[in-house]
Amino acid sequence: MIDRTAVRNTANYLRNVRPIDPEEISEYIEGVPHPGVVRETLREEAFDLRLRERDDGTFVPVDDDPVAPPGWEPTEFPERYAVAVEDLLVGEFGADWHTGESGDRLREAIRRLKTDYFYGNDVRYDRVAALGYAIYHLPDYYAAIGYVLDDLAENGLLDRTLRVLDVGAGVGGPALGLHDYLPADAAVDYHAVEPSAAADVLDRLLDETERNFRPTIHRTTAELAFGLKETDGTDAPPDSIPDEPFDLVLFGNVLSELTDPVGVLEAGLNALVNDGSVVALAPADRETAIGLRRIERVVATPGSGVDVYSPTLRLWPDATPEDRGWSFDVRGDLAVPPFQRRLDEATDRDATDEPGEFHNVDVQFAYAILRTDGTRRVDVQASADRCARLADSEAHVTDRVNLLVVKLSHDLSEGDNELYRVGDGSQAVDHYLVRTRGTELNRDLGDADYGAVLFVENGLVLWNGDEGAYNVVVDAETVVDLVAP
């Protein structure tokens, strides 16, 4: 048995002197253990020592500077991951996996998953369903997570040493996106919770990650992992997650599938370090996106100690929104990955059927980042002496008012007047800014990114009875200023 304390002490002594070589350390340890044993011990201790392993087998300290936004704008799903997906498909069904009976089974699995998500049915993942999910959803979730992480990185809130818990990790879209988003000199202790057959796909894809991204898969449910449920004899014994708190807890398209999503999300928040973040990601479709907001609002109530970091900022103290909350971001499409193209081209279609049923390259997603340290992406609050609350819009119909709002959509119009969903954290029903005339004084409305904070001066409040929403008209008399991007 190697003396781990001696290894740690020696590594700490040498860390600021020169790269830590396992062969050198072995000479300082009683019994002179084999350098390979020392190397494996250093790998196991590296995260806690804030060390990373270099290609030459030596270890160096991880930089103390936080992760900077890397300019994340992927245009395609990386080839090495695409090859790994096809390796799985070929291993399961053979080289012609996309044709014949196997192609039909995969297409049926994808259709069934899409239907179940649309209607809110229980989703079950056997081996074929997990591979179908990887074909259809792996690329867009890979891209989406990086855009969400930008919200944290822009404020220096992603450390280069991260302990991550990925709850409902599925086939690994968020995991692979996180891996590629972080710089090469980061060190990650990654833990995935995934009870289904998707864990086998995840396990293979994680083989493509670098040496300092150290994964562990816990094949158990979220409820068992957090101790919210005891085994009843039918469940496998829980695969315990580490007791150490996490810097980042991810929920990627899983909250809508849980029996107790609020309890699991609260457990995730309780598993954070003091300055950690929970990131919840969901598809942009109406039911799952609104469901995410509903869960967010139950957990992040005034006085709960949980704050919405982004994107749906509460701009009025002690306010909680009550509108539908259907809000999602939209980013640039990806190129169609080869495995989606092969499956789609082999589909038996009538002459009138449109190709592309099994292409999924739209990057559209709803998300919430929650924290327990009071930090928000933008430290801005509204004041009654400068602007009106959206909660009071009924009293301002046909009046011109000033507002402080968060932009919560891209242009939703279909070629008519530009239309943007907004919120300030107090709204009881949906609110939209409708630009009927663009000017230099209100151009920030269109130019601002999703999640930006805007000050609207002299907007005209109208009630839209057909939609059951308030429209705030932005015209030649209205000024829109970007307060925070």
Can you give a write-up of this model?
- This protein is an alpha/beta fold and 485 residues long.
- It has three domains: 4-61, Arc Repressor Mutant, subunit A; 79-284 and 328-371, Rossmann fold; 390-484, Nucleic acid-binding proteins (OB fold (Dihydrolipoamide Acetyltransferase, E2P)).
- It is built from 13 helices and 16 strands.
- Strands 3, 4, 5, 6, 7, 8, 9 and 10 form an eight-stranded mixed beta sheet that branches. The chain has a five-stranded mixed barrel with strand order 11-12-13-15-14.
- Helix 1 (4-14) crosses helix 3, helix 6 runs parallel beside helix 7 (173-181) and helix 10 (261-270) packs across helix 11 (286-299).
Give the CATH topology of the largest domain. Answer: Rossmann fold
Stretches with pLDDT under 50, minimum 5 residues: none
Strand content: 15-25%
- Quick one: biggest sheet? 8 strands, mixed
Let me know the number of strands: 16
Quick check: average pLDDT? 94
**The CATH H-level homologous superfamily of the largest domain:** Vaccinia Virus protein VP39
Rg to the nearest angstrom? Answer: 25 Å
Shape type? globular
First-last Cα distance: 55 Å
Alpha-beta classification: alpha/beta
Spell out the helices and strands N to C. Answer: HHHEEHHHEHEHEHEHEHEEHEEEEHEEE
Total helical elements: 13
**CATH architecture label name of the largest domain:** 3-Layer(aba) Sandwich
Q: What helical percentage do the residues reach? A: 25-40%
How many discrete structural domains?
3
The CATH class label of the largest domain is Alpha Beta
